[in-house]
Amino acid sequence: MDWWIWTLIGFFFLALEFVSTTMHSAFFAAGAFLVALLVGMNVGGPLWAQILT
After folding, report:
1. Buried b / exposed e across 1-36, counting CB within 10 Å, b at 16+?
2. What residue spans define the domains of the chain?
């Protein structure tokens, strides 16, 4: 996937964090932003590796 899709997923989980009472989705947001950064630098690998990361 492209880096901007991972960025949108990260912002989705960040917005979900603000409306929820638990603090679990912030970790998913951080992971999505990390994968977006790696894909932007062309080190992301195939989709299965991106999801695993």
Report:
1. eebeebbebbeebbeebeeeeeeebeebbebbbebb
2. 3-52
